[in-house]
Amino acid sequence: MTKTLKIVPRHQIDSIAWDACVAASPQRMLYGYSWYLDAVLPAPTWKWVGIISIDESGRYRAIMPVPLRRKVIAGITYEWVVHQPFFCQFLDVFSPDGSVDSSPFFQLTIEQFRYGSVFCTRSQSNKLSDIGPTEQLTTHILDLSADYKTIYQNYSHDRKLNLRRARHEFNAVANWTIVESGDPEPLLTLFRQHHAETIDGGVADWAYAIFRKLTNELSKRGLVTLRYAQHDGQLEAGALFVCEGNRIIYLFNAASEIGRKANARTLLIDQLIQEKAGQSFVFDFESPAKPSIQAFYQSFGATEEPFGMMRWNRLTFIERVLLKLKNRF
């Protein structure tokens, strides 16, 4: 089937047809839309291409985005390599046709690009094992179709206790309020001041620029909910949620020490769960592979949803040595 697939550069992709294919597919997710990919993969360092299967009438039958990043090794500009961008947990093959085999899309990707730094796909690792080495990762999701009382009963004992403390703190003890906002800058400030230094290698300025561009695109489409916990006029915690289709994504958050002690993020998450409970939504915590954070999300009754991660390397010996040297120094 790989012979019937085409790798199409971004400027030749019909964005309307592409986005319609994503929206009509069972695999529908925010990360697959062309405008979303444009936001998280800005030129000149990033770009994306599409692998497309076109039916007899010329319509997009199935599509898969491939995110690419330019690598520079020992001062030499290297070819484009497959690399998962920030704010894009996983991708997939999108098709309204449930019978489409996704394997040839991944196979062609590996054949076309010699180096895959990391490529995350919603397809589970056991379905990709015949194509190449894969690893299984998980996010954590919470089904919101039940009423809030039922969902709350599945909170852990500690989560219920901390939620009661947060409600008491916000309603009775201190001057706390929850505010809705369209400004992501305080959230980025909280992250810079209280989280960035805990990340290996730090966080580059370009990552913040991508987030600003992305939140602007999300806001234009009415997909984002941004809330802050405010204490005595000072913003101490924030959470940004994105709702598209039937999936709500906990895309970004940050809190000061005061916000953490007051369990502000627990309150912000619980507030949104209350509002969406009883509807056909899945809440995706977008959990990283960090046990303490995963335990926090599981305390809301969230369950694991697996996805696959692929890596491959067909570089020459000299290229591998240069890459190792670059990564080391």
Automatic annotation (TrEMBL):
Keyword Transferase: yes
Coiled coil: none
Pfam families recorded: Acetyltransf_6 (PF13480)
Keywords associated with the record: Transferase
BioF2-like acetyltransferase domain residues: 159-284
Keyword Transferase set for record: yes
Transmembrane region(s): none
Superkingdom as given in the UniProt entry: Bacteria
Gene Ontology molecular function: transferase activity
Protein name stated in the entry: GNAT family N-acetyltransferase
Annotated organism of origin: Spirosoma arboris
